[in-house]
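Table S2 (continued). Query chain:
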Amino acid sequence: MKAMIYTGGLESSIQPQPGEKPRALLEVNGEPLLSILIKRLAESGFNEIIINVHHFSARITDFLKSNDFSGIRVEVSDETDLILDSGGGLRKVSWFFDDGMPFLLYNLEILSDIDLQKLYRDHCSSGALATLVVRRRESERFILFDEEMRMCGWVNKLTGESVMAGSYDGNKHAYAFSRIQIVSPRLFNLITERGAFSIVELYLRIASRHNIRGYPDSESIWMDLAKKDGMLEAEKLFMKN
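Corresponding output:
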């Protein structure tokens, strides 16, 4: 099975400084985050992985070349010249997902022990175009779903900005996106956007005609390592377990 790891978002708001280590290579109990995630995905059956890079791209690429991830195909999509965001980054690597099978998208800054095999099977049996892992947690931005957990909108509680997918007027349920998702390759035929764009923006454009569904997850560990003290919390969690 195939997967894409987004690494760029970790440094999207800062500029690299001389001698600074990319957050993708910061260590949790002696092992770089990127290595932890590659192995985690492989253990769940995702043995063909493409990784997008922009900030610190050379250092991340060198790390991948110098480490032997036995039995795992690892490719790199270099966005050094232009940061493409989640949607544009996926569009650029459409060539990688050439087997007609659903694939995993996973943001590196997220640490979770969610059962990825169960998630994949659930997506395949649903017939959905995309299955987004979501949960009820504190956040500024929420995706809105209808009673059947189909995406019907998006809202920023801080700014009051909202976007509706179509004209849905029923009850809406707000969930925060966990930045883990399974996607059908049929999505590539629906992308008309160019350059840098968010995959959530793409989903909102097509959700009234296609099933973009939420997958509520409240049982698994979920941590945002890009947040303040996120790495410290991860260290404590690994030590505990």
